[in-house]
Amino acid sequence: MPRKGEILPKAQVGDPTDPQGFAVLREAYLESLRVQNYSERTVENRISYLNALILWCEDRSLRRPSEITKPILERYQRHLLHMKKRDGKPLSFRAQHARLIPVRQFFKWLCRQNLLLSNPASDLLLPRLEKRLPKHVLSAREVESILNQPDVTESMGVRDRAILEVFYSTGIRRSELAHLQLFDVDAERGTVMVRLGKGKKDRMIPIGERAIRWIERYTEDVRPGLVGEVEDGTLFLTNLGEAFSPNRLTQMVRGYVKAADLGKSGSCHLFRHACATLMLENGADIRFIQAMLGHAKLETTEIYTHVSIRQLKAIHESTHPARMHSHAVQKLQAELEEMQQEETTGLMNDSV
């Protein structure tokens, strides 16, 4: 029986008996990615997106990469444009882009291996990416509201509170938190070692004292009762004594976000956005935030300069010609209150 939040293995896609078919060449391509030390998550994503192409091709009796031409790939691209998700909404252009990149890389690899004479995807134009800001960004008060949702009188509540505190204090990704070990947290130095993060890069980041205190309470009072027969040193354990899967973390955090009733949706990444945005608003240098979040490019971190509106708002209020001085604001508020009071008095007289 699979664990809660665990993804079940998918059925075989393609004909594994055809040496020139999609299935055999796909497996050879994926093996080359593993040889190049790509992360298993990257490999899994490539499998998912390539399988989508293979299934689409098989519906049209196309079973070999050698049968694929540029017009066929352009038809597949139009298929993605009109494709609907389970909720009936179309794929975003970013999602379409993500599905087409593995296709281009796959055919490029086939040509490099002399398995194809020409690359039908070489001139395939990808959709332009939208520069979108995070849909929801939490304020400090809203974060505290979510942190207070777990029932800390129960053991699982203490564990969940510790997890939320780590997310908020460090801004780490859900997969990075799931792989944390006991020895990765240095309470004396106030640091956390993230091992093999995105891009298989290690980094050391600071963690707040409050988060450390919750971790200590969890490791002393709760974790000993969760450890199974085999102790592998994983910091956060489920009630079955196993490491969290990323999907299970998403389900847990989403439940607390929903329970806080903030009118905002999201999960683990909400805390990552909040950590970066609030630190930036409080004066942190963007390069320190880049190092903390583990971004390879500064451009990725610069999105938070657009999300952080406080400084821009202060400049707007102090320099815009239509700004109002404090005494003008107070006068306007007094006039509005007086008008409301007169309207209320008039209504009472009319009723009499």
Automatic annotation (TrEMBL):
Query: Which Pfam families does the entry link to?
Result: Phage_int_SAM_4, Phage_integrase
GO BP, one example?
A: DNA integration
Q: Name one GO molecular function term.
A: DNA binding
Checking InterPro entries in the record gives: CB, DNA_brk_join_enz, Integrase-like_cat_sf, Integrase_catalytic, Integrase_recombinase_N, Integrase_SAM-like_N, Tyrosine_recombinase_XerCD
The Core-binding (CB) domain, residue ranges: 20-111
Gene3D superfamilies in UniProt: 1.10.150.130, Intergrase catalytic core
Q: Which UniProt keywords apply?
A: DNA integration, DNA recombination, DNA-binding
Where is the Tyr recombinase domain positioned along the sequence?
A: 132-317
Q: Which family does it belong to?
A: Belongs to the 'phage' integrase family.
NCBIfam families attached here?
PRK01287.1 (NF002331)
Q: What is this protein called?
A: Site-specific tyrosine recombinase XerC
Organism of derivation:
Oceanipulchritudo coccoides
Gene assigned in the entry: xerC
